[in-house]
Amino acid sequence: MKTLKLLAISLAFLSISFAADAQRGARIGYIDMEYILESVPEYQEAATQLDGKVQRWKGDIQKMNLEIDQMKLNLANERVLLTKELIEEREEEVQIKEDELIKYQQDRFGPNGDLIIQRRQLVQPIQDQVFNIVQEIAEAKKYDFIFDKSADVVMLFAAKRNDISETVLRSINRNNKRKEVTNRREKKEVERRESLSDEEDAVLTEREEALEDKKDEREAAMADRKRIRDSIRAVKKAEFQRRRDSLLDIRQRRKDSIAEARSGGGSGNPPSGDDDGEGDDGEN
Fold it and tell me: What's the pTM value of the predicted model, to 2 decimals?
């Protein structure tokens, strides 16, 4: 009850503060942490790896469940053949496996399990980076309040013009590019981008995205043309092969016909030795 009273008092003071700040023209902004995380490639890559671990953990749990079910089934089928001591021993083995399963589930998915710890380790560096950038933006742009839209703060309305998520995200990307710089030319390009205002950077980013889209369209069109050329080439090649096989077949049949004719003509001539033999018999 005391907690509820303190919460009500805190909300009342916060409302009074908002009202006072609204009268003097307070600047209020917000970010969407979930959107920022989803847009950071490093986070997405690590999140994919963590999802792979989660699937393996779930597979292990499923195997352990199947093993326990099989042990229970075997015990039920063999119970009438076992002594009391053997039954108790088998039941103890089942209980040990069930305890191992519960411990494994807690170690992986419990409140202090690997999933919670690794997610916290995954999110923490980006959250720290976002926090530092928000501090810089708030001081530079004279914001009085900046909220996280994806947190537990109830936001009944939020005008899009107060969303600074893109500004934070651009700062993160610039910081990452600064770390990846390997030569003087790239360093100058990063410094040039950093010197732009948020509006100029947004316009340039939009222009770059449009150019990238056009590049993708050109590459897709070139790939389509290549597929058509390859298809036509394959048809011509198949037609050439068909005609070649047909000519070879005609030539082979002609050779076979000539060979057959020659073989038939040689067998029709009577042997000369028989005629001479008959003449000699007549004279005798």
Answer: 0.49
